[in-house]
Amino acid sequence: MITLTKDMEVGVAKIDAQHRELIDRLNAVTAMGAKSVSKEETQKTIDLLGEYIVKHFGDEETLQKQSGYPKYEWHRGQHQLYIGEFAKLKREFAANGVSAKFTLDLNNSIINWIVRHIKSVDVEFGKFYLSA
Ligand SMILES: [Fe+2]
């Protein structure tokens, strides 16, 4: 389970609120692995997370574009890579359910990645946005 720590705050209310929601949905998927729930229920939780990732990235990119953020294209590229990793996770789930590989990929490629991303590149954008 992860929480939004002080060093993950971007300073833009909309983005911080969405990051909290995103983390709640990530934690919900982690919780599915720990409980014995049906594959359908886990699938639903994964899909809810996936939809929110796309919505959140889109909203963040819109703010970047509107504010003329110079690293917009690069940042968007990072989001695209993440969406690719998430698609891989979904394929692993479809093939083998909550396997050891699924749990490993969820922790490394999805959870740790987003924490690093928020702390570095999102915080960097927040500084730009607030000074723009
Ligand atoms: Fe981002």
Structure description:
This protein has 132 residues and is mostly helical. It has one domain (6-131): Four Helix Bundle (Hemerythrin (Met), subunit A) (Up-down Bundle). The protein contains 4 helices and no strands. Helix 1 packs antiparallel against helix 2, helix 2 packs antiparallel against helix 3 (72-96) and helix 3 (72-96) runs antiparallel to helix 4. It starts with 12 loop residues before the first helix and ends with a helix. 18% of the residues are buried. The model has no long low-confidence stretch (mean pLDDT 96). The chain binds fe (ii) ion. Fe (ii) ion is lined by residues 60, 75, 79, 117, 121-122. Fe (ii) ion (FE2) is lined by residues 60, 75, 79, 117, 121-122.
Keywords:
elongated, 4 helices, binds fe (ii) ion, mainly alpha, Four Helix Bundle (Hemerythrin (Met), subunit A), 132 residues
Task: Please state the second-level CATH architecture.
Answer: Up-down Bundle
CATH C-level: Mainly Alpha
Helix and strand string, N-terminal first?
HHHH
> Which whole number gives the mean pLDDT?
96
Q: From the helix content, strand content and strand pairing, which structural class follows?
A: mainly alpha
Over all CA atoms, what is the radius of gyration?
15 Å
Bound molecules: fe (ii) ion
Number of strands: 0
